[in-house]
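We were asked to recover a plausible sequence for a given structure. The inputs and outputs are reproduced exactly as logged, with field labels preserved.

PROBLEM: sequence recovery
POSITIONS: 270
GIVEN STRUCTURE:
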């Protein structure tokens, strides 16, 4: 019996994906780098943009194909708030796009155990969605409060999971032997605020990073490109650049992290 082979087959590798708007495209680059070196995932958790990446990748789409879908459909433009409109908008216009590429619309038919973080607005608490209609769970996790109408699932109102947990590592703890985190919200030092949009983005990143350390501590490996700090959450034209930043950071991590080196070696022996 090949013990190394058995070890690789039974090792459960989890991947946690943060929210971060279009910066979340970097997750696809990270996934591309890791999977090309033989690393596969049994469990994936995500918030907001991380939930989108988790669902599409676990449905069997390659990271490069997901990037192309995002570019062709202008996905993040559809999720971008329009402050000129009155009242709350519906995010449900994105539902048909998800259904187009994931027609089975089911957690159970995904290639990995996927958990999506959202906030139950009525109960005022964080919830982890891992069954039911996949498209509604993804949209709930992306639903910016005050901009989009909450997503209603089984009589409960849900909004963006990033309000309470923008880096949902907890669903992987105890279920995985190795946890890899991909975070896209490094907070750079700035000397000026360029616009109202920049102000909102900066304030959001400060809030997100306030409790990020505790979530990072739950990971065995954290991949966090520092150069993403200069991109706003709605810089849709930079999607390809952001993908490549994630890819290069993934390759850098594989070369420099002992845990990832071990996983790559096990994959080669399998």
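RECOVERED SEQUENCE:
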């Amino acid at each position: 019996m090949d013990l190394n082979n058995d070890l690789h087959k039974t090792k459960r590798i989890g991947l946690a994906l943060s929210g971060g708007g279009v910066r979340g495209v970097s997750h696809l680059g990270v996934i591309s780098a890791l999977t090309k070196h033989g690393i596969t995932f049994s469990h994936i958790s995500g918030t907001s943009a991380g939930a989108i990446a988790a669902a599409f990748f676990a449905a069997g789409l390659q990271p490069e194909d997901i990037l192309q879908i995002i570019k062709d459909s202008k996905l993040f433009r559809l999720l971008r708030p329009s402050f000129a409109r009155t009242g709350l908008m519906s995010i449900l216009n994105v539902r048909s796009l998800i259904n187009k590429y994931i027609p089975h619309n089911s957690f159970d038919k995904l290639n990995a155990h996927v958990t999506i973080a959202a906030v139950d607005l009525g109960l005022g608490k964080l919830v982890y969605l891992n069954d039911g209609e996949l498209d509604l769970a993804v949209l709930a996790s992306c639903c910016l409060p005050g901009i989009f109408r909450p997503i209603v699932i089984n009589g409960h109102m849900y909004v963006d999971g990033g309000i309470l947990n923008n880096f949902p590592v907890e669903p992987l703890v105890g279920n995985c032997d190795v946890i890899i985190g991909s975070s896209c919200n490094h907070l750079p030092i700035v000397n000026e605020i360029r616009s109202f949009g920049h102000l909102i983005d900066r304030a959001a990143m400060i809030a997100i990073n306030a409790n990020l350390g505790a979530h990072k501590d739950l990971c065995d490996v954290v991949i966090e490109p520092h150069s993403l700090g200069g991109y706003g959450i709605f810089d849709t034209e930079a999607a390809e650049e952001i993908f490549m930043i994630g890819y290069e950071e993934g390759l850098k991590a594989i070369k420099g992290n002992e845990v990832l080196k071990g996983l790559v070696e096990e994959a080669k022996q399998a």
